[in-house]
Amino acid sequence: MQKTTIEFKNPKQFEESLNSYKATLLKDNAYDDLSMYFQIFSTEIKEEVVRPIWEVIEAVFPGKPWFGHSTAGNVDDCEITSDLSVSVTLFEKKTTKFKLLHYDMAETDTVDVANKIIEECKNNSWVKAVEFYLTINPESPSVFCENFEVLPEDIQMYGGIVCTRDITSPDSCIFSSVGGFNTKGVIVLLFGGDDFYVKSFKVSGWQPIGRNFVVTKASGCTIYELDGMPAYNVYRKYLNIMNDENLFANALEFPMMYQHNGVTIVRAPAAGNADGSLVMSADVQQGSMVRLSYGEPNTVMQAVQNEAKQLKNFNADQIHIFYCTARKVFWGLDEPTTEIYPFRNVKGSTGFFSHGEFLREKGNLNQNSVTLVIAAMREGDGGDSCDIEAFDEKSINTKLPLAARMATFIREMTFELESINSQLQYYNEQLQEIAVTDSLTGLDNRLAFDKYVKDIENDLDSMTPWKMIMIDLNGLKNTNDNFGHEAGDELLKAAAKVLDDTYGNIGHCFRIGGDEFVVIIDADENEMNTLKHALIDAINSHNENSDYKLSMALGIGYLYTREGVRKSISDWKMQSDLDMYRDKEIFHKAMSRTGLRY
Q1: Angle between helices 485-503 and 525-544 (to 10 degrees)
Q2: What is the DSSP string of 371-401?
């Protein structure tokens, strides 16, 4: 597989160069045996500019396929080349197969075109790679991408969106020997055969920073809101980037990342609208999570070098480069091909600066932005293995003020994290309080009681003579049945109040069940008697002024026996329970003598 670049200055010079090249080929090959195609790269979109090129090709190499497209700049052997560049690919293996397709999308919609490409792949079982060149269309390229998961996963797909030097312009064009010239369509190249091999991959190099944002409102390429606020606010608040004509250039070091089809996709803001929405380089789905990222020159170059090592033993005959124009802006006009330096030892490379890049990953075709997509090809064992050259370790600067942007980002993110941490601390305190508090009475609940008792159990050195008062309301069911649950709730709240008023200053009160309460207290017998009388007085005082009468059964358990032996917690609880049930039985017998039932 050989790549040859033939310069175009004017039709006469080009024809002479092509004839010379043809004569060289025919020394060892019959014309009909030549398997080849021509690719025309043009920064111009005018048909009258590119037509002379293909007319010369057809005159010198009749019947041989050619195609071309507009670009934002051309790359040859990892260097920027002239505005009009012609590359010739010659296949050396007879088993290698190639097919050129051209679809006019002005006449056929995107889904139909995708289905036709799928059908071509199914009808040609030799296909191993699908390469395509798509014009800028009003319809989102994401629609085009959504259909190819039906193809076998081992078919690699890659390509780019063609454009012009003015990357904000919607104009672009494609042209070919099988479809003529048009401004809305796609050119497709099918490669395959027993001795054909391809490896495609992408390079980003951008690193995530900050927190995730939820895309709360979006449609197509436009993000209206992130976390419920205008999308642009993220760039203004964290990076001090203005919503003006320089937004695209200033935000290039900080594109957004999000997960799509199981892979990380990069999206750069192309422009900002007056309402604070952002027009992205491709679709971003509503409900997805996005995160800002940053590009640091040495980090980006290291990512390229790491990926380039994939080619060291692949022995590529040539590579095709789909190079996002946003990266060209990132590096500046002086050295826009700096980052592809490691690929210079590959025998032949062609490429162009694109509006967007495509790569099939995990069975899904994805549109990327601010990305470098590489497709390496070979026939048979390929050429000699190539050394991947290392970058110079010296710092390389872009024209964008990364340090100043990062300083703003760190400051704002620090303030935000401090605020979030304060809120989280407050909410955690609230949640902890809610977790151990009975919502109806305001007393501590069963969870708090269990922990309190567990702490007493674990404090084996303590000799505190704890008492446990088990309380059960008399007649709560009767109140609920006769007056409703609201009345029962009032009775429970009244019980909690008289218990807390009586024991709360020196003991700990809990509601542990429906009508069950517990008090844990450290008091001697005299204090216990005094408190019991105080409780009776509080109950009587309540009953004098309330329609719902309060009555309690009480039982007392002692942690230590009279001989000073410490009981187990279960025995302690059991003593309190039994004593309380004895008191409750006395209450029921008294009620039965009056003819009342509780």
Answers
A1: 140
A2: -EEEEEEEETT-S-----PPPPSS----SS-
Q: Are 430 and 437 in contact (CB under 8 A)?
A: no
Q: Mean of the pLDDT values across residues 253-280?
A: 88
- DSSP letters spanning 251-271: HTTS-EEEEETTEEEEE-EEE
The bridge status of strand 127-134 relative to strand 156-161 is parallel
pTM for the structure as a whole: 0.68
Q: Is the pLDDT of residue 596 over 60?
A: no
Instruction: Give the 3-state secondary structure of 198-219.
Output: EEEEEECCCEEEEEEEEEEEEE
Half-sphere exposure of 463 (CA within 13 A, CB side): 3
Q: Are 595 and 482 in contact (CB under 8 A)?
A: no
Q: How confident is the model at residue 406 (pLDDT cuts 50, 70, 90)?
A: low
Q: Could you write out the DSSP letters of every residue in 18-75?
A: HHHHHHHHHTTS-GGG-EEEEEEEES---HHHHHHHHHHHHHHSTT--EEEEE-S-EE
pLDDT exceeds 90 at position 539: yes
H/E run at residue 497: helix 485-503
Q: Rounded to whole angstroms, how far apart are CA atoms 272 and 281?
A: 12
Residues 158, 365: Cα–Cα separation, whole Å = 8
Residues 6+ away with beta carbon under 8 Å from 348: 2, 3, 4, 77, 317, 318, 319
The pLDDT assigned to 46 comes to 93
Lowest mean pLDDT among 170-174, 283-287, 431-435, 442-446: 431-435
* End-to-end CA gap in the chain: 99
- For 350-373, letters b (16+ CB in 10 Å) and e give bbbbbbbbbbbbeebbbbbbbbbb
CA distance 168 to 158: 23
